[in-house]
């Protein structure tokens, strides 16, 4: 017999199929999912809440996806910051990156053709003329060559020209405010944004045009560190295919080689053809004067000339002080910028006119 309290609960939940007793299916009560039909009994499960294991699995998936998203987001952010830092290091302030952008277009000389047409009266169409060309690429070299060009022009022996192939924008009219010098603006286009290779090719091409229209007898340049390397390399490469003489001036040419401005074109054209040797005859006695002479020859300025051959003719009997001096004598000197060469110094003994005895002949 069911207690009164139990019967009360059963009557209270009897109309609610969700709160029915689990044994009600066996009672075939109305309101439950068990029905009889012609095809036989059918049973449909009552909807239930998800199990605790499914909910935990879903939460685990969400946590895992969140962690993966967080890692990918941080990695992308780090890559972007590294790229920005690398770009800033390669081009601080955006200036270095711009300096590396060079113009690579075809070579053009906007003002060279006009200046070459203006020198038609100097006999540039002939290989033999009086044209002398001073050429520079550096502003410091141009300031060194201009006074010498003015002095040569003042002699009125040559047609003096000045070619400027600078990287910087310089108004040549302001640079050549001296009468008597024909200017030649051989500067290529986009020189300020050109690489050294393009500037070298431009210098070679400019010298080619100048050679065909001017035929200079000599080209005078500054060979010191003040001049651009690409410019010197270009003119040295181009000069081999011409008949012009290349004169490379050393340091302080206005004082050491001031006499060059007094030479005419024919003398300057033979600059590279001149070679001389030095012959010194040593006296039989008194070697002090000979030592002073050899010392002065070694200290002489020979930078603009090829090193001459030095030959010293010694007497049959050489004094001991002279022998010691010659053993430590170097020709040319180290100060000349050239390494001492043994073949450039020759020592010869004069044969005595008297008859030698057995000891001397041995």
Automatic annotation (TrEMBL):
<keyword id="KW-0812">Transmembrane</keyword>
<feature type="compositionally biased region" description="Polar residues">
    <location>
        <begin position="36"/>
        <end position="45"/>
    </location>
</feature>
<feature type="transmembrane region" description="Helical">
    <location>
        <begin position="58"/>
        <end position="76"/>
    </location>
</feature>
<keyword id="KW-1133">Transmembrane helix</keyword>
<feature type="region of interest" description="Disordered">
    <location>
        <begin position="336"/>
        <end position="362"/>
    </location>
</feature>
<protein>
    <submittedName>
        <fullName>Uncharacterized protein</fullName>
    </submittedName>
</protein>
<feature type="region of interest" description="Disordered">
    <location>
        <begin position="25"/>
        <end position="49"/>
    </location>
</feature>
<keyword id="KW-0472">Membrane</keyword>
<feature type="compositionally biased region" description="Polar residues">
    <location>
        <begin position="336"/>
        <end position="345"/>
    </location>
</feature>
